[in-house]
Amino acid sequence: MELYDLTIHELKDKLASREISVNELLDSFYKRIGGVEEKVKAYVTLTEKEARESAKELKAEFKGKLAGIPLAIKDNLSTEGIKTTCSSRILENYVPPYDATVVSRLKEAGAITLGKTNMDEFAMGSSTENSGFFPTRNPWDLERAPGGSSGGSAAAVAAGEAAGALGSDTGGSIRQPAAFCGVVGLKPTYGLVSRYGLVAFASSLDQIGPITKDVEDAAILLNVIAGHDPMDSTSVKMEIPDYTRFLKEDVQGMKIGLPREYFSMDFAAEVKESVLAGVQRLEEAGAKVEEVNLPSADYALAAYYIIAPAEASSNLARYDGVRYGYRSKKAHDVKEMFTNTRNEGFGDEVKRRIMLGTYALSSGYYDAFYLKAQKVRTMIKEDFDRLFYEYDLLISPTTPTTAFKIGEMTDPLEMYQADIFTVPVNIAGIPAISIPCGFDSNNLPIGLQIMGPHFGEGKIIQAAYTLEQILEIKDRRPELEVSV
Question: Which CATH number describes the domain made up of 3-257+388-471?
Answer without folding.
Answer: 3.90.1300.10
